Amino acid sequence: MDSDRLPLVGVRRQGLDNPINNGPFCNYKNASDPSSGKYCTQAKDYDSVFNDPDHSVTGNNLEFYGTYTPNNGAIASGKVVADQSGFLNAQLNDYPKLAPEEATRQVMGYYTEEEVPTLVDLVDEFTTFNSWFSCVPGVRTAAGHGKNDDDFLNYGISSKSIFEAANEKGVSWLNYDGTNGEFEPDSLFFTYVNQTSRSNVVPVENFFQDAYLGVLPKFSYINPSCCGTNTNSMHPTGNVSYGEVFVKQIYDAIRQGPQWDKTLLFITYDETGGFYDHVPPPLAVRPDNLTYTETAKNGQKYTLHFDRLGGRMPTWVISPYSKKGYIEQYGTDPVTGKPAPYSATSVLKTLGYLWDIEDFTPRVAHSPSFDHLIGTTLREDAPIALKTPHTFSV
Q: Which Gene3D superfamilies match (predicted)?
């Protein structure tokens, strides 16, 4: 999914570290001024956030560290750890006409179990990650382009992708694309796919046909429609309920199709979009030597070395061989043998084991896989259909 939401913050299940279980957690109106007033995590009762929070690199800095330009050396040495103090501050900076109470609901609010029944169904029926983090503390990449500018769209990313690796290994794949949005499908960001495999990109409607008919390829990559009104990625200003409908449609098609007993459905998000979490993002192995420099809204410049992760995101392993109602905590760094958080590179690591693909980067080499979460016993109790979502009162 392409969401910038944290919809599991209000789910009461043992093993989920969230405000409803361990909070509330609070921010000051001004991150550096305790006298400015304290506002705390709370339930919110609307389907869409119309004021998109700042999720640039420097915006994430303010949200995580209370400043646009934290000291990189102090972070790398462990002397400075994110205190998650600036989410409210950042939202009020961007939308100064908002009352603090409303800004708090927007960036620190959470959905109750009653509001997101489809996603709660996934938690109760399959395996949920408690420590899955965004690969980047922002929306930028280490691929040499800092923004989605014309140069990026014209020339793409030259880095090797999972799609190119799949072709090399003879693994069939399709990128099913939600066409009701403003963004190209993920695979077309890569130069290789643009030049050799554009026919592998098909409308998302084809996925439902293929799933029910039992002709899905070995690797299906699904993009929701993004972003804005009437899209289903859950990204502001889209509706959470639309995203739940999309999740249900995908699951139901696989579950009711003939390939269910040999399918792993993996659902995750791209990044956290400036929405609050109390858990500080951990450090990470650099994927390469590239950096990204950004000018913050206060005019200061900041350079990211891609040596730390972004915020946590809901992520699920859904399979007739995955544990029912299981909450996965940390994985294991295969190089050091130490506990390590999961991120999108864990998908690359796991697929690397499956298809004998060499690690793309040092980051992938150190990423924990999740193949151990797939058992050998076929479950017969997986629901035929997920619970039906509903519209919100607001």
A: Alkaline Phosphatase, subunit A
Q: Judge whether 84 and 13 are in contact, CB under 8 Å.
A: no
Rounded distance between C-alpha atoms, residue 90 and residue 135, angstroms: 21
| pLDDT over threshold 50, residue 350 | yes
How far does Cα 268 stand from its chain's mean position?
A: 5
DSSP assignment string, 103-151: HHHHHHEE-BTTT-HHHHHHHHHSEEESSBB-SSSSS--SSS-SSS-HH
Instruction: Read off the pLDDT of residues 278-305 as tens digits, 9 standing for 90 and up.
Output: 999 999 999 999 999 999 999 999 999 9
Q: How far apart are CA 90 and CA 47, in angstroms?
A: 22
pLDDT at 144: 45
Q: What are the structure tokens assigned to 264, written together?
A: 């792993």
Task: State the amino acid at position 335 in one-letter form.
Answer: V
Q: HEC string of 153-219?
A: HHHCECCCCHHHHHHHCCCCEEEEECCCCCCCCHHHHEHHHHHHCHHHEEECHHHHHHHHHCCCCCE
Query: Which ranges constitute the DSSP H helices of 316-377?
Result: 344-355, 362-365
* pTM, 2 dp: 0.93
Query: Mean pLDDT of all residues in the chain?
Result: 92
The band of 387, judged by pLDDT with boundaries at 50, 70 and 90, is very high
Task: Please give the biggest Cα pair distance in the chain.
Answer: 62
Measured in degrees and rounded to the nearest 5, phi and psi for residue 147 equal -140, 165
Pairing of strands 316-318, 326-328: unpaired
CATH 2.30.30 fits 114-373, yes or no: no
Closest CA to 70 of 25, 31, 107: 31
Amino acid at 333: D
Percent of the chain with pLDDT over 90: 80
User: What is the residue extent of each domain of the chain?
Assistant: 114-373
